From TrEMBL:
GO terms for cellular component: membrane. This is Beta-amyrin 28-oxidase. Belongs to the cytochrome P450 family. The lineage of its organism: Eukaryota, Viridiplantae, Streptophyta, Embryophyta, Tracheophyta. GO terms for molecular function: heme binding; iron ion binding; monooxygenase activity; oxidoreductase activity, acting on paired donors, with incorporation or reduction of molecular oxygen. One of its GO terms (biological process) is sterol metabolic process. Transmembrane segments: none annotated. Heme binds at residue 348. Its main location: membrane. It comes from Nyssa sinensis.
Length: 401
């Protein structure tokens, strides 16, 4: 028998395997993430809880419905235009990551938490979530001085802040004020499958998860996409052409519609292809449901398996010549071959929201600017969601209207 591995990094294709292989894995959350937020935030799947129930009790995605996104789209477009006006226009050299992050934080705060754009809590949440992200894949040693300890403290502060916000919202709602953000929906919604209401603490934990994921990952993804496009003028031109067609079909002052987004095929395929080659999120954990052997290594039941996005996304059997940029690959990628957002039961619930943010931002950006990357060899730092080490400095070149 081959030596068991204490920690297993999935090889190419592991996520593209047929259901038999997938059924070996029990859905499992990263241990550190779980401890940072403690149960009930995304607890271990338990054999005693039927799957469907578990999905309802523990998952965030169900409530990010397409209707909610369609309803938010126009607002998102205006907010992005406003952000570009306030923080990008009239500037020449900027640290783009900081500006993108400010924008994604503002958008998420409005959509998920119902905060106004100038609410000082947005910056506080952003700082807490950034610090926490660093600890997501750290070794869970809870001693002062460790990355995990620090991240856990930040997670506690974030949850406390969100808890306070929940109390404020509850008070406002009980005095008859209508609220339409995701957090308010969570506060109001019950969990019939569990036969009980979701507790305030559970809502605070889930909302904290949305803050952490919604602020940072789309910002990293957009920075990567902007860099990639800036360095390849032929891609930039094609995106501009597609976006210009959409702009031409609209009256001045009109915001983007759901139909407009469906026309952004080249822009979205390009974005997906860039995320395939340079994924903004590195991977996640699963737990082996039974002993199995892979490539001569035995993975015992109960061990944690870390699957990586890059190895799956660059499997040459699914993506021939995997390092080559080819957005035409995305006419219909087979399931579980393209996994920047994960896959299966725990697929990222923010995927569709992210598509909106990225497309609307790119639409407005290429209408206004060309940009030049000032630090072409800049490193990405961090583990699970890396960020540009120097803040992605660029030179903006405004386009005449
Ligand atoms: C470019 C943007 C994003 C990328 C690349 C990304 C990627 C991922 C990946 C790879 C996973 C793990 C899936 C798995 O375990 O199979 C995940 C989970 C998750 N993401 Fe995202 N994400 C993004 C944006 C967002 C946004 C905007 C939100 C806010 C709603 C979000 C919320 C979550 C949550 C709550 C989970 C845990 C889901 C669960 O375990 O049930 N993500 N994401």
């Amino acid at each position: 028998m081959a030596n068991p591995l204490p920690f297993f990094v999935a090889q190419p294709g592991i996520n593209s395997s047929p259901p038999t292989r997938r059924s070996l894995f029990r859905v499992w959350r990263p241990q550190s993430l779980q401890k940072l937020f403690r149960a009930p935030f995304l607890p271990n799947a338990s054999a005693t809880i039927p799957r469907e129930t578990m999905v309802q009790v523990t998952r965030a995605p169900g409530f990010i419905k397409t209707e909610a996104l369609v309803g938010y789209l126009g607002k998102m477009d205006s907010m992005i235009q406003q952000q570009l006006k306030m923080h990008w226009e009239g500037k020449q050299n900027v640290h783009a990551y900081e500006l993108i992050h400010r924008m994604t934080a503002t958008l998420s705060s409005r959509f998920f938490l119902g905060l106004e754009d100038d609410d000082p809590r947005i910056e506080k949440f952003a700082k807490l979530s950034d610090g926490m992200t660093v600890g997501l894949h750290s070794i869970p040693i809870n001693l002062p001085g460790t990355v995990f300890y620090h991240a856990k403290k930040l997670a506690d502060s974030l949850r406390k802040e969100v808890h306070q916000l929940i109390k404020e919202k509850k008070a406002a709602m009980s005095s008859g004020i209508q609220m339409h953000d995701i957090l308010s929906h969570m506060i109001l919604s019950s969990d019939p499958s569990a036969g009980r209401f979701t507790t305030e603490r559970e809502v605070a934990s889930l909302s904290s998860a949305l803050v952490v994921s919604g602020f940072t990952t789309p910002a990293t993804a957009l920075a990567i996409v902007m860099k990639y496009i800036a360095e390849r003028p032929e891609i930039y031109k094609k995106i501009c052409a597609e976006q210009e067609e959409i702009s031409k079909s609209k009256k001045s002052g009109d915001t983007l519609t759901w139909e407009d987004l469906q026309k952004m095929k080249y822009t979205w395929h390009t974005t997906m292809e860039i995320m395939r080659i340079i994924p903004p999120f590195q991977g996640a954990f699963r737990e082996a449901l039974s002993d199995f052997t892979y490539e001569g290594y035995t993975i015992p039941k109960g061990w944690k398996v870390y699957w990586t996005v890059t190895t799956t996304n660059k499997n040459p059997e699914c993506f021939p010549d995997p390092e080559t940029f080819d957005p035409s690959r995305f006419e219909s990628p087979p399931p579980y071959t393209f996994v920047p957002f994960g896959g299966g039961l725990r697929v990222c619930p923010g995927k569709e929201y992210t598509r909106l943010v990225m497309l609307i931002f790119l639409h407005n950006l290429v209408k206004k600017f060309k940009w030049e990357v000032l630090a072409p060899n800049e490193n990405m730092v961090g583990t699970v969601i890396p960020t540009p080490a120097q803040g992605f400095p660029i030179r903006l070149q405004p386009l005449s209207a």
